[in-house]
Amino acid sequence: MIELGKSQELTIVKTVEFGVYLSDAEEAAESQERVLLPRKEVPEGAQIGDRIQVFIYRDSKDRLIATTRQPEFSVGETAVLKVKETGRIGAFLGWALEKDLLLPFKEQTCKVQAGEECLVALYIDKSGRLCTTMKVYPYLRTDSPYQKDARVTGRVYEIAENYGVFVAVDDCYSGMIPKREPAMGLKVGDKVEARVSQVLEDGKLTLSLREKAYIQMVSDGDKLLELLEREGGRLPFNDKADPELIRDATGMSKNEFKRAVGNLYKQRLIVIEADGIRKV
After folding, report:
1. Residues 6 or more apart whose Cβ sits within 8 Å of residue 154
2. What span, in angstroms and rounded, lies between the C-alpha atoms of 211 and 217?
3. pLDDT tens across 167-179, in order?
4. Is the pLDDT of residue 27 over 60?
5. Strand, coil or helix: what is 193?
6. Whole-angstrom Cα distance, residue 120 to residue 91?
7. Which of 27, 94, 136, 144 has its Cβ near the most Cβ atoms within 10 Å?
């Protein structure tokens, strides 16, 4: 079976002036499915019966056609492509083939502009054409090689208030920074460096932008001292304050703030008061 949007090895079954016809069978009858490989892409010396690795797509006239060029991804996979231009039905993305790929407005998770890069998945739309979507969650892989505490890089592809920040690790593996983790200021398309805090049973990765607690405590303490310096040496709240107040003021969770305050107090760098903390 000749599959649109996929790379496959096909057999030359007929030669014509403008190229060769390929089939998935070694011997093809007239009724069997065939696809044209244009003359300019036929390997030198190729003959009937030879097997050729090709990618199947549709040309500018919507005809099924083969190419020996191998694009960035196949149907069901993800890749980062550059926006070439935007139009009335969506954006057009450049890739290794001549015909640009459509990214419809309804498949965009944020508005894209010409020149930007975006993470997309390749799929076949209802009209049988290759198309892309920024809604990549169902297409991300769950077989990453990463284990707990591994350092990874990824790209933000969705932000859900009730869940957290969804990240495509290496642009292909499923990961998420949970809502409980500080991740302020991130937006779709941002690249992040993170630590794998957990590998779930289904293979998805739980990520953290922070180090392990004992390492982060030192960093948070330094950050807190800098904040105290900027605020004239005193903050009008302590570790018993509301978690949201702490997060808004420091970017830390309440537990992280308590650890940092406790560490600074033990070093006698701060004084904990009834309604705040003060730098010594």
Report:
1. 167, 168, 169, 170, 171, 173, 175, 191, 192, 194, 207
2. 9
3. 999 999 999 999 8
4. no
5. strand
6. 12
7. 136
Q: Which residue intervals of the chain are DSSP H helices?
A: 213-230, 243-250, 254-266
Q: How far apart are CA 228 and CA 223, in angstroms?
A: 9
E strand residue ranges, the chain: 7-16, 19-23, 35-38, 51-58, 64-67, 78-86, 90-94, 101-104, 117-124, 130-133, 151-160, 164-169, 173-178, 191-199, 205-208, 234-235, 270-273, 276-279
pLDDT category of residue 218 using cuts at 50, 70 and 90: low
Query: Which are the contacts of 145, defined by CB distance < 8 A and separation ≥ 6?
Result: none
Q: How far is CA 245 from CA 85, 121, 184, 230, 249, in A?
A: 43, 39, 14, 18, 6
Rounded CA gap, 229 and 244, in Å?
Answer: 22
With a pLDDT cut of 90, the percent of the chain lying above it is: 55
Domains for the chain: give ranges and CATH numbers: 7-67 (2.40.50.140), 78-137 (2.40.50.140), 140-208 (2.40.50.140), 213-279 (1.10.10.10)
Q: What are phi and psi of 199, to 5 degrees?
A: -105, 115
Whether 127 has a pLDDT exceeding 50, the answer reads yes
For residue 61, what pLDDT is reported? 85
Q: Cα torsion for 14, 20, 23, 24, to the nearest 10°?
A: 120
The least confident of 42-51, 108-117, 143-152, 261-270 is: 261-270
Is there a contact between 57 and 4 (Cβ–Cβ < 8 Å)?
Answer: yes
Predicted confidence (pLDDT) per residue in 42-86, tens digit: 999 889 999 999 999 998 888 899 999 999 999 999 999 999 999
Q: Are strands 191-199 and 151-160 parallel, antiparallel or unpaired?
A: antiparallel
